[in-house]
Write a structure and sequence with these properties.
Blueprint lengths: L2 H26 L4 H4 L4 E5 L9 E5 L6 H17 L7 H20 L6 H18 L14 H7 L1 E10 L5 H14 L6 E5 L7 H8 L5 E5 L18 H8 L2 E7 L4 E2 L3 H7 L1 H6 L1 E2 L12 H10 L7 H4 L2 H5 L9 E5 L3 H13 L2 H11 L4 H10 L13 E5 L5 E4 L2 E4 L5 E5 L18 E3 L3 E3 L8 E4 L4 E2 L2 H24 L6
Parallel strand pairs: 3-4, 3-6, 4-5
Antiparallel strand pairs: 1-2, 6-9, 7-13, 8-9, 10-11, 10-14, 11-16, 12-13, 14-17, 15-16
Length: about 500
């Protein structure tokens, strides 16, 4: 038998073993063979050139012992290690994560049928596969072997918290956000301020921001993940996915430093039905530039070959109608205790590794935005998007037929204002000291994009709504808190923004 034939045979055994695991799990849960038929799964065999996307092959179930089944999983794990995916294979990475999800579920569901040795061997195969796919999982602060199982042990069961990635450039806005959360909204959720090394957020900055309120912790992401394939210190947006994955909280709200909330974050975790259903909540970007990014859409479609679109993707106006950008990642909400969500976040992290982001992610999209939903989609997780695409929160134009500003507004399930991005300043790109209290908002209208980033945008052709007095008072209180923090920053001399 040739080397290629041996490799194909080994992988086919592993694929068959994966399907048998699924059968065993379902049988253990009381499902008969009659309720399982017909059963088939689409997997892949390698081509002569392992860097090429392999062809489909469909396998149905057969009879194997648990020992043989675990041997087949081990063979597939070795295949994953021996044939790493190139940076272009987003879809295939999703398929491998789906395979890993079945393995992890098998270890949990079949625990009473495995010896301790078998359970440990399966865990080792899972961890070896995870580490081969995601070498950043090695924790540099630990000399011993670390991988996915060690990362999951980092999560505190039942915990909920806020993660704010920031560096020196966005530090001031992160401080404003903390005041908005603690002083204005009264949120009691613990906060992690994530950064990438000493030069990203020096000790004097960390000391200042930790002292703004109770229960604030700073976390150096470079001490959680191996930075060899990441270069997070120079990665910009890339830190966000890793801050989410590495957080000690099971349920996380990941916030951009210049986000402002108009409702307490606990409201999302406790009451948002979409989030409670899927363990995720993402927010739409603006509907802009229809038909202008054909290459991006063609690339999405290529990666989604052999993939059944999720309910969220089936409803996407960006994907189906050719608009440019799907996700505003200024707020991402995730429940990592759900395995499918955790693996989707792993995919998003892989998209933000240095090689992948430089070659594909940041060329086919703007920063980390699309990596969140794309990772969840390709790894087979269900996810929730807000009902409306990004709206406008600002002021009426002179003719009183448009709402204009520099922000993007987002809404809850009752169409009430939930949060907006851009910060409390009227235009942070032009004036560092002029704050603003918005008076009007609109959604489901037509966007008129400003000619350049410092120019305001407008929305027209939809109902103009006035912010409530309670909402304006909330923003006014947040502005007063921000001004007080600015005075403290200036007094400390750690940052000069005038």
């Amino acid at each position: 038998m040739s080397a290629l034939s041996q490799m194909r045979y080994r992988f086919l055994l592993g694929a068959l073993g994966l399907l048998l695991i699924v059968l065993l799990i379902r049988q253990q849960n009381g499902l008969s063979h009659s309720t399982l038929a017909p059963i088939a799964t689409t997997l892949h065999t390698p081509s002569k050139n392992p860097s090429e996307a392999p062809s489909d092959i469909t396998l149905t179930h057969g009879d194997h012992s648990l020992t043989q089944l675990l041997d087949n999983v081990s063979a597939t794990s070795t295949y994953f290690t021996d044939y790493p995916l190139p940076a272009s294979e987003f879809g295939q990475m999703g398929k491998r994560l789906q395979v890993m999800q079945h393995w992890i579920e098998a270890r949990q569901s079949l625990s009473d049928r495995m010896t301790l040795g078998q359970a440990d061997a399966l865990r080792t195969d899972i961890d070896h596969s995870a580490l081969s796919l995601f070498p950043f999982l090695h924790n540099p602060s630990q000399s011993s072997y670390t991988s996915l199982s060690h990362l999951r042990q980092r999560f505190k069961p039942g915990s909920k918290g806020i993660v704010i990635p920031t560096g020196q450039k966005t530090f001031r806005y992160a401080c404003h956000l903390i005041s908005n959360l603690r002083d204005t909204l009264g949120s009691k959720l613990p906060i992690e301020v994530a950064y990438a090394g000493e030069s990203d957020l020096p000790a004097s900055y960390r000391e200042f921001i930790s002292g703004l309120a109770s229960d604030i912790e700073t976390v150096d992401v470079l001490r959680v993940f191996d930075d060899t394939t990441l270069d997070l210190e120079h990665g910009g947006w890339a830190i966000k996915t890793f801050a989410a994955l590495g957080s000690q909280y099971e349920q996380v709200l990941v916030l951009d430093a210049d986000a402002i909330l108009l409702q307490a974050p606990e409201t999302i975790l406790d009451h948002h039905t979409g989030y409670k259903s899927t363990g995720t909540l993402l927010f739409h970007d603006r509907l802009l530039w229809q038909g202008a990014f054909k290459e991006r859409h063609e690339w999405w479609e290529k990666q989604l070959e052999h993939h059944t679109p999720s309910q969220a993707l089936s409803k996407s106006r960006v994907y189906n109608d050719g608009y440019a950008e799907e996700c505003d990642s200024g707020l991402v909400v995730l429940d990592k205790s759900r395995l499918s969500v955790l693996l989707g976040v792993l995919h998003a992290c892989w998209q933000n590794t240095k090689e992948v982001r430089d070659k594909w992610t940041y060329k086919m999209g703007y920063g980390d935005k699309e990596s969140w939903w794309f990772g969840l989609e390709l790894s087979g997780a269900q996810y929730t998007f807000e009902d409306h695409y990004g709206g406008m929160l600002g002021h009426l134009n002179a003719d009183k037929n448009k709402v204009c500003s520099f922000t993007i507004a987002h809404f809850d399930e009752q169409e009430k204002l939930l949060w907006y991005n851009g910060g409390l300043l009227l235009n942070k790109l032009k004036n560092n000291t002029e704050f603003d209290v918005p008076t009007h908002y609109m959604f489901d209208g037509v966007w008129e994009k400003g000619a350049t980033k410092p120019d305001h945008s407008c929305m027209r052709d939809a109902e103009i709504r006035e912010t409530s007095e309670a909402e304006r008072e909330l923003v006014r209180k947040s502005v007063e808190g921000a001004k007080a923090i600015d005075a403290r920053i200036q007094q400390s001399s750690i940052l000069d923004f005038t």
